[in-house]
Design a protein that fits this description.
single chain, 196 residues, alpha/beta, Rossmann fold, 8-stranded mixed beta sheet, 3-stranded mixed beta sheet, 6 helices, globular
Length: 196
């Protein structure tokens, strides 16, 4: 199964590398419109986002509309042992560059326990229609999500929505997968909103 995940990771990265900056920007625009219009996003008071890097959606663009809507927004900070924590950021918070390349909150930003967060936006290279997630292999989110009971949402480009992603026992999926054109996952099926 590990070899299959590596094959899917390479396939996803190759597909992402083929996108033009204009394609990525247009895809981001569609994903962000759908995310911000979700009832779950509008109802959430405290959200965890991530800082998209490289070919990932440029999720920092979501901060201004969420701040304008009066939301409290957290970003992840990596810890030793492939652990992470959520820290609250403000409009004027200075983000610092992690050695892996992503931006994260500084130590001056307060830690917010997982149980105080209503909604978490979870990154991934690819997803499937049932909420299965293909991460980058570090396990940071799988570990953090074991203590999280709120709603989990993923932004997935249409071209990276797969039929099935193999799951190991420790792999944690998401409740909703948003693509540029549809909504998938167990929660979407319950609401009769599947993109099928």
């Amino acid at each position: 199964m590990t070899a299959e995940k590596e094959r899917l990771r390479r396939q996803a990265l190759d597909w992402l590398a083929s996108l033009s900056p204009q394609d990525r920007r247009a895809g981001d625009d569609a994903l962000f419109r759908r995310f911000l219009s979700l009832p779950q996003t509008q109802a959430a008071q405290v959200l965890l986002l991530y800082c998209g890097m490289g070919t990932e959606p440029d999720t920092l663009r979501l901060l201004p509309p969420l701040f304008s809507a009066g939301k409290a927004v957290c970003l992840p900070r990596c810890l030793p042992g492939n652990q992470m924590e959520a820290r609250l950021v403000q409009k004027d918070s200075q983000l610092v560059r992690h050695p892996y390349g992503m931006l994260e909150p500084g130590l001056d930003c307060p830690v917010i326990p997982a149980e105080q967060i209503d909604l978490a936006l979870i990154p991934g290279l690819a997803f499937d229609r049932s909420g299965g997630r293909l991460g980058r292999g570090g396990g940071y989110y799988d570990r953090w999500l074991t203590g999280f009971s709120g709603i989990t949402i993923a932004l997935c480009r249409d071209g990276l929505l797969l039929d099935t992603i193999p799951r190991l026992p420790h792999d944690v999926g998401v409740k909703l997968v948003i693509t540029e054109t549809s909504l998938y996952g167990p929660s979407a099926l319950e609401q009769g909103k599947s993109g099928a």
